[in-house]
Write a structure and sequence with these properties.
alpha/beta, three-stranded antiparallel beta sheet, 12 strands, 13% strand, binds pyridoxal-5'-phosphate
Length: 396
């Protein structure tokens, strides 16, 4: 089989070799429980506090504001549920966006069943949050604004600083799901007025099942997992020491190579965008052209099914995503693509390609060649496309 072209880095990333290397001794040598008194345990404990410092520094936060979790979904659940519970006496209204990851959206749906009210703010045709709509949605009983830093499907980067300023001015807590942005874009929690921030290890070349929640000092929260005193009594469970060490190694790596990685990714991304736009008719670039993650490409192609395109790309060794819930067997098109105003059938014909700094220009060119060929083939079989062509000829 030919070498795989991996273009699904928003779904997960390859664990970096230096991450695996950093983790290994914590499986084989320093396997002690970080809560134990003997030195095998204190070595583990030391590694955990070093990791906490590394991560805090990356956000210009304090180490005791970092809480390790088992990933981005847990951090999102914790931030939203615990805030709702801790601040319920102040109010029961939450504001979020229509394009959040399901870890936030489904948590909000759950809270609606528990008597909370949630306002879902819309986005414009490029996926940028409607700030005026957000301002108008604020009420005296609003306790939380939760808006993602950058979208996982269309790569749009939100005006986080503006949102943070609104939240601060109104005395409302601000949580951001930064799973896609953290490690790709510099984030300063003070500058952006972020009170809580979720991140995940496996989206930045770290191990799966690792992540953290930043909680600003002084914010009321609730223990998310009850049990032992780990994570200052807020998240019980024996520390995943190798995972935490791996997460910190991934963070170090991401911040060390950020500038160079971003430059490389933008060149790869823009090659895909430019060639697709120029060479494949009836397509639409989804997401903002400028306020966009360096690694994200998302297109909708008329007259085709994204799923068929994915399967045929896979046969050519190309890993991509339709960026929608279709992959889970549901027929609903992506909520993100509907929120930016796409018709159902357009949303169904969508393709997400997310590059990494390890991809090459040759891979980009081969990918576009394959997409082009597959789309021509799929359209040739499409009755919709045939009708469209006939109509067009009739008009000419
Ligand atoms: C992947 C992702 C998550 C979930 O993170 P896990 O670590 O896989 O639980 C949450 N939010 C966004 C935006 C994501 O891309």
């Amino acid at each position: 089989m030919e070498k795989v072209i991996y273009l699904d880095n928003a779904a997960t990333t390859k664990t970096a070799p230096e991450v695996v290397e950093a983790m290994t001794p914590y499986f084989t040598e320093y396997y002690g429980n970080a809560s134990s008194i003997y030195s095998l345990g204190t070595q583990a404990k030391k590694a955990v506090s070093q990791a906490r410092e590394t991560i805090a520094e990356s956000l210009r936060a304090e180490p005791n504001e970092i809480y390790f979790t088992a990933g981005g979904s847990e951090a999102d659940n914790w931030a939203v549920k615990a805030t709702a519970e801790a601040y319920a006496s102040k109010g029961r209204h939450i504001i979020t966006s229509a394009i959040e990851h399901h870890a936030v959206l489904h948590t909000c749906k759950y809270l609606e069943q528990k008597g909370f009210e949630v306002t879902y703010i819309g986005v414009d045709e490029n996926g940028i949050l409607k700030i005026e709509e957000l301002k108008a949605a604020v009420r005296p009983d609003t306790i939380l604004i939760t808006v993602m830093f950058a979208n996982n499907e269309i790569g749009t980067i939100q005006p986080v600083k503006e949102i943070g300023e609104i939240a601060k001015e109104k005395g409302i807590l601000f949580h951001t799901d930064a799973v896609q942005a953290y490690g790709q874009i510099p984030i300063d929690v003070d500058e952006y007025h972020i009170d809580m921030l979720s991140a995940s290890g496996h989206k930045l070349n770290g191990p799966k099942g690792t992540g953290f929640l930043y909680i600003r000092k002084g914010i009321k929260t609730r223990s998310f997992i009850h049990g032992g005193q780990q994570e200052r009594g807020r998240r019980a469970g024996t520390e995943n020491v190798p995972g935490i060490v791996g997460l910190a190694a991934a963070v170090k790596r991401a911040f060390a190579i950020m500038e160079e990685k971003t430059k490389k990714e933008i060149a790869l991304r823009d090659r895909l965008i430019e060639r697709i736009k120029k060479e494949i008719p009836y397509c639409r670039l989804n997401g903002d052209e400028k306020k966009r993650l360096p690694n994200n490409v998302n297109f909708s192609f008329q007259f085709i099914e994204g799923e068929s395109l994915l399967i045929m790309l896979d046969m050519k060794g190309i890993c991509a995503s339709s960026g929608s819930a279709c992959t889970s067997g549901s027929l609903d098109p992506s909520h993100v693509l509907l929120a930016i105003g796409l018709a159902h059938e357009t949303a169904h014909g969508s393709l997400r390609l997310t590059v990494s700094e390890e991809n090459t220009m040759e891979e980009m060119d081969r990918t576009v060649d394959c997409i082009k060929e597959i789309i021509e083939r799929l359209r040739a079989m499409s009755p919709l496309y045939e009708d469209f062509c006939k109509k067009k000829e009739g008009l000419l």
